[in-house]
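REQUEST FORM: STRUCTURE PREDICTION
Request ID: SP-0412
Submitted by: Lab K.M.
Chain count: 1
Length (residues): 699
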Amino acid sequence: MTDLIHLLNKNPADHETPIIRYSHQLGAPISQLFGLETPSALFTWAVETHGEKRCLAFRKIIAHVLETRLLGDWKYFTYAEVGRRVREMGAGLTKLLNGRKVQRLHMAAANSANWFMLSHAAAMVSVELICVNPLLSQRELTHTLTHVPATAVFMESRNLSKLLTPLFECPHVKLIIHETTSEVDKDLEQLKRDIKSLMLGLEYRVTIVSIEELCRIGLEVMESCILQKPTDTGRIWGHVYPRTLNEYDLPYSDVLTNGQVAAGIAGMYCALEKDLEPDDTYLSYLPLYSRLEYTLVNVLLISGVTLGFGTQLETFLLSAPYNQKCCPASYGDIQSFRPSIIFGTVPWWNTIHEKLLKALAMRPIEEQNDFWKWLEWKRTTVGGRSAPLVSFFEKWGRIAEIRATFFGERVRWVGVTCSMMTSEKREFLGLVFGGPRAIMVQGWGLLHMSSDVTFMAPHHHTRTGLGRPLPSVELKLVADVNESAEKSRGIYRGRIHIRGTSISLVKTPRYRTGVDVGLTLATQLSSEEEWINTNRVGEWNSHKQSFRVIDNLLEPLGARYLGDYVPVERLEAIYNKITYVRECVVTHSWRCVDLIGIISVNEIALRQFADSLPTVRIEGLPAERLVGYQLLRQAIAGNLRGHGKKSGLVGFELVGGVVLTFDSWGKGFRTSNGIVDRAKVITKYQKQVEEQAQLLAPL
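STATUS: Completed
RESULT:
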């Protein structure tokens, strides 16, 4: 009633929220850190500040053992050594690309320590980067090489043969730099053959060098080569192709300047600084062409955190028996490097979740029951921030022991990048793998702009929101005309508008179904002071200082970038369009990987749908038995999945099982503004959800 009176007293013209910032003390988005405004300046500061401290590490494959691979020891570099190696790379690039006015390095390799160092070397000698997904098809690879003409390519040695066809159409490419993740003689011999074939096919018009040869060349010319870190914040840092791969339209790039990249690093540093500890370690394996990962790695570099780089992306992250490719004689990347911070994508976390449930199923029933019982106790206690009790519960429920079998004993917080993950699943994964703080953080960014908007460490995170805006970004919510943005006291809702020093502003127009071309073109003319409409709907809880996205206005969602965040409310709206669905709430049980839909169904429409199914017989079944008929529920789940795919949803956004009810969700299940209260619906049907989860649980 209080909220209703408050709404009636609001001015309908007040349809914009106040500016939402990371902190009220910030008068404007920050653009620099320590007075430094370019990535090269920040990198140099980190090298000079941390000196002989361990900086980064990587390892290689040293043997083939049947179908598995044996991995060697980690090779560590100090900050000083990394600084020298980057200068050598920069000098080598200057020598080999000498005489070309516009120099661009196409980064087609996967995430690696050399990718990261080479990116800084290129920036130091004013070579523009072209950052792409390393899994692009030959058609897409050719497009990205020619759309913004590259003069050099960085590629993994095992993928060199992919370059032969694309480079026939790219006479402007004169240099290929490659790196190998293997020291096995068989692999090195194959590399020699691939290089010879590539040189013959291209008629020796390109120079091909390994990353080590590039460093040796750079060392030879270091004295005569002047390396100056760029001071021009408006100079182009690189061209980022944020699209995934194998989509029907060719990708276009976003242009980032030195100032925008540095502002993003500065903003994330301020957001994470208080949650980082001197002995933290981070294992990077997510693609560095993703701006979030690249910015995060740079922030940790500046903070003095030791960085490890995964071997061939996520291939060897886990140890046996959870990984069939990793030789049992060597630990996987995670257990051997022992990171304290781990990030992953939604599909990767789903894989971890499934392996966790299978590992639990192999334990005695008594231990399984203890795990679930003490996990619930941990959930209750974490809210009270009682660290000693949390430690006891982790021991009694064997939670810490199970976490250690996957990630070792040092993990203290985890995160998920991009895409949709229900709050229930994020809470579960945080409780199991997130250490004492027990929170999995999740950022939100706009892939079509290569711009991150929210990203917080656990200290500022809630289990339901996406944190606060980064200090380099500010946002506001704009409701429709004649509507108030404040829907209830302290709760604001409207279209998300953003601006900031780290936002990518220079855009290439793209004409693609469902994409707001007007927005894209308008962005070309905008500046840091102008607001950009993201075409998303958000909600800001001023009490919890928590932001979340509640709708993605693209229709259909097949027109989006596959990593783009789709809120659970959007999934529910898609399923609500089916004739027999009155209303739907999508939830998740800890005991299964798939989403579960709680559906209020129309009985007449449901019976008509059931009659159309050849394998389902419902004649004479009363309503109370109809909703529990498992064959019908399986058919409905399949129908929902098919409808979701047609609407552009991908695997981890599709419902795996359903709970059916003929109940209508009246006032008792609605918020003050008439929207279904998801929490109340989930609470009422929790028992049925768990029963459905048991049927979906991996064996």
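NOTES: The chain has a mean pLDDT of 86.
Reviewed by: T.R.
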